[in-house]
Write a structure and sequence with these properties.
Number of strands: 17
Distance between the termini: 58 Å
Number of helices: 29
CATH architecture of the largest domain: 3-Layer(aba) Sandwich
Radius of gyration: 33 Å
Number of domains: 6
CATH class of the largest domain: Alpha Beta
Strand content: 5-15%
CATH topology of the largest domain: Rossmann fold
């Protein structure tokens, strides 16, 4: 199996493509190459937009593109000619159009979808009724809960909502907390139901829900009937009718009615979803009617032989009856009115708290691009500006985010060459908590995005794992994943992979799974340590990694490895509060809040930002153990201090005193950040910071260079140590003394 044709086709910027790229298939490489191919064809680099799901993915892709343009990207020999060709084409176009990417790398539009929404929303603040000072928060649950509480209080105090609140509360057994939880739980997906509720009369909601349930039931039963075949279905219907008759349930149903399907499911599987092993009079099969029981046994054996039938019957068993009665219709009316009120209350909470969530920003962005289905002026400007869109991790896209992409391409009906390139892997969808729907991947593959139809491509080679591991994954997950794709239930099939790497010399072909029979972390840690000790004995040159689900599980493993005298290095195990930069920030905040907090002031002066050693602190405080440090700093420099310490104090003292004297002019968070930045962002004295727009990266000085090569004009920043660090791809140079 080879996927080279798909990789080649991915560079065709005149085609709209949907690429399925499983784990380890080189997705980032394909994205970066596609980005470069698109750059070479446009007049300005801003006409190419790459959208990622996380900041880490955006940084990784940006770095790969910049390294490719510098010609320093490490790649396999077979890919080097392609990278070289793309680099030459982009540099030639950049030279013709004077892009100055070396000095302005921020012109490359590689950003997260959240940052894109923020950018669009900021362009239309009046339309979105958003203020520039609103803070976007990740943990929005307290705001949602507050809006839900305000909604129920408002409904209780106003006559027009009292009946609605009473009806909803009665269905929830008058549990106030449960009602709040219900309303707050629906708010994250408000962008999906607000428009429906605002444009649909409440009295019609019941009919719409029932029509949807009937459609789902019809599609599900049709799929089961097709899988069973006419003969098995007919025999199943006869058995279900006989069973119902013996149970006294009549059984005078219409052919393939909902009641008949439930009876058929009942004689095939138990309530827990497993196959029935036997039937008796409780299931409508009397002991005296042996021929009937034998017919059932023969029929069930044939049904069990149908691939995937158990899952289909389970799905049918879980479906609700496709009927919405009068009481439920009234409840839907009341709930819809409360939800609209809750959405309004949430906006008030946002304004009062000065905070919003990502869903609100995304809603404003979509409203900025479209107004009741009609492209806005901003939408047309965006359309004229963007010619090629690349979107990563498409399997984790939510309906709201897909609507945003749809709004961006709505004006793509001119003769200009444009392309939409979507990359993802439905087997890796993990962001359900952010309203992502893997079914969107399947729907887009079948129906496209808006008026655009996309050509589907697949990558199949795995460059990450050894052949034996790839084979094991193919075998295991082929049995775990469903055998048939289903758009409605978001069921995706498993895509087999082919190992691109060869078997490692001297490596073991064995792949072992050792189940842990106990939940005791200590016993599990002992087993892990024993296995590592055995592996190190046979393979002393191996590097062995232990992956843990959470940090608390790492401590027992590290303890057992220490007892076994096995050296171990913890990676990303320290909590945020334990990181040096966070401790420094906490010290600044505590110092600015309390001038007598000697511990906080000593920690601040001893931090890399101030650079005082323990000996310096002793010299500074030797004669004033009872005096607050802020007062000692206000006394000015002392002749008894050595020259180096006086020089350092001359730099930091004015900054510390200014922050202390102005501490009441801003909140503590702003004051802390301001002082931290003025002190040099926590970097040791003598270092310089290289940063670009939207980028902030500390770079240690590289190899020493000749003095004539260390000028800013040549793209390097001179350090006090005499070394140089590359600065070309980081843009503006800002000196920090």
């Amino acid at each position: 199996m080879t996927d080279q044709p798909a990789r080649d086709a991915s560079l065709a910027i005149d085609r709209h493509l949907l690429l399925q790229a499983p784990a380890g298939s080189g997705k980032t490489t394909v994205l970066a190459q596609r980005f470069l191919a698109a750059l070479a064809s446009v007049d300005e680099p801003e006409e190419v937009l790459a959208i990622t799901f996380t900041r880490k993915a955006a940084a990784e892709m940006r770095e790969r593109v910049l390294l490719a343009l510098e010609g320093t990207l490490q790649s396999v020999p077979s890919e080097q000619p392609r990278w070289a060709g793309l680099r030459a084409a982009v540099l030639a176009q950049a030279a013709r159009r004077d892009w100055q990417l070396a000095e302005l790398p921020a012109r490359l539009r590689i950003q997260t979808i959240d940052s894109l929404c923020h950018e669009i929303a900021r362009a239309m603040p009046l339309l979105g009724r958003m203020q520039q000072q609103l803070q976007v928060v990740d943990d929005v649950e307290p705001l949602l809960n507050e809006a839900a509480v305000l909604t129920l209080r408002h409904a209780d105090a106003h006559v027009e909502y009292q009946d609605d609140a009473d009806r909803v509360l009665r269905r929830l057994e008058n549990d106030w907390q449960r009602a709040c939880k219900l309303l707050a739980g629906l708010l994250p997906s408000r962008n999906r139901w607000q428009q429906v509720l605002a444009t649909t009369p409440p009295e019609e909601l019941g009919a719409r829900v029932q029509a949807s349930l009937e459609r789902i039931a019809t599609e599900t039963t049709r799929a089961v009937a097709q899988a069973l075949g006419a003969d098995l279905l007919a025999e199943g219907e006869r058995l279900a009718r006989e069973s119902a008759k013996h149970l006294g349930e009549g059984g005078e149903w219409e052919a393939q009615s909902w009641q008949q399907w439930l009876a058929l499911v009942r004689i095939a599987i138990k309530e827990d979803g497993e196959w029935r092993a036997s039937v008796d009079k409780r299931h409508g099969f009397p002991t005296t009617d042996r021929p009937l029981k034998q017919r059932w046994k023969t029929w069930l054996e044939d049904v069990q032989s149908v691939p995937g039938m158990l899952g289909r019957l389970r799905h049918l068993q879980d479906l609700p009856e496709p009927v919405v009665d009068d009481e439920e219709r009234a409840a839907l009316v009341s709930l819809s009115r409360l939800l609209l009120l809750c959405g309004s209350q949430l906006k008030l909470v946002f304004q009062q708290r000065g905070q919003v969530d990502h869903s609100e920003v995304a809603a404003v962005a979509r409203q900025a691009l479209t107004d009741m289905g009609t492209p806005t002026e901003l939408s047309m400007r965006q359309t004229l500006r963007v010619r090629h869109i690349l979107m990563d991790e498409f399997q984790d896209t939510s309906p709201d985010q897909l609507d945003l992409v749809h709004a961006l391409i709505r004006g793509w009906d001119d003769d200009i060459e444009r392309s939409l390139f979507l990359v993802g892997d439905p087997m890796q969808s993990i962001y359900l908590f952010r309203n992502s729907e893997v079914g969107l991947f399947l729907r887009t593959r079948a129906e496209g995005v808006g008026h655009l139809r996309l050509e589907a491509l697949r990558l199949g080679r795995n460059f990450r794992s050894v052949p034996r591991l790839v084979e094991w994954a193919n075998d295991a997950f082929a049995r775990i994943f469903p055998s048939v794709e289903d758009l409605r239930s978001s069921a995706v099939t498993f895509l087999q992979a082919q190992a691109a790497r060869s078997a490692e010399a001297g490596g073991s072909d064995a792949l072992c799974i050792l189940p842990q029979a106990t939940e005791d972390p200590r016993l599990e840690a002992q087993g892990i340590a024993a296995q590592i000790a055995s592996l190190r004995k046979d393979h002393p040159d191996w590097r062995i990694a232990v992956l843990v689900q959470k940090r608390s599980l790492a401590a027992p493993v590290l303890a057992q490895l220490a007892r076994a005298d096995i050296p171990a290095l913890g990676v990303e195990l320290a909590s945020l509060a334990e990181r040096p930069v966070v401790r420094d920030l906490i010290a600044i905040g505590q110092a600015l809040q309390d001038g007598s907090d000697r511990t906080a002031w000593l920690a601040l002066l001893h931090s890399p930002a101030c650079g005082l050693s323990l000996r310096d602190l002793q010299a500074l405080c030797a004669d004033d153990l009872d005096t607050a440090l802020i007062d000692i700093l206000g006394q000015g420099s002392r002749e008894s201090l050595d020259a180096e310490l006086r020089r350092r104090m001359a730099r930091i003292t004015p900054l510390l005193l200014e922050a202390w004297n102005g501490r009441g002019r801003a909140d503590i968070a702003t004051a802390t950040e301001s002082l931290w930045r003025r002190l040099g962002d926590g970097m040791p004295v003598g270092m310089r910071r290289i940063e670009a727009r939207r980028c902030s990266t500390w770079q240690r000085c590289g190899a020493p260079r000749k003095a004539k090569a260390c000028s800013p004009a040549r793209g390097y920043a001179r350090l006090p140590s005499g070394c140089a660090m590359p600065a070309r791809r980081w843009g503006t140079i800002r000196s920090r003394s």
